[in-house]
Request: fold
Amino acid sequence: MNQKVVNIIFALGIIVLLVLNFTKKTTSSTSASSGNSEVSTSLKVAYVDLDSIQEKYVYYQEKMLEFDKKKEAADRDLNAAFQKIDNERLAFLKKGQSITQAEAENFQQMYQGKLQNLDQQKKVLENNIAEEGMKTMDELKKRMNDFIVEFNKQKHYSYIFSHSSAINFLFYKDTTYNITNEVVEGLNQAYKNQPQGK
Reply:
């Protein structure tokens, strides 16, 4: 993980601590000024485990399966093309002593040109696959954000954090505040209910 990402994570952690500290002080001072009356504004926090989302969210699983199939098909096509060129090379070499200097030079030039073309195709395919992966992740993030906004209209959390084994800036998490199962269930229901083709 590069230093910039680490700095961002620590900055987010500090902001959260400051907000929690400020809210606690505000709540304490409000409680003190109003005697024993209950404070209406309380901080309500929850978190979602992104690893569980990846394991259980049907839309994510389908997209990853589709993505993997496209990647495998592209790899197969490229491997077949490389194999075809290599077979041409082997067939040419079988001519043995009858190959003239001019034929060898022409074949070498043609062979190198085909390899360069395939390398270019490989780079283009890899870029397309990476772009598609980014679009899929952006769509997943949008779906989750949209769902959580609707979900929170009833739950009224002050903050909903995300947690994953890859990026973890929560030093401690009480599983009482884990709302992952509710979120996954809601996401899957929303995906099931949406019109086909979206």
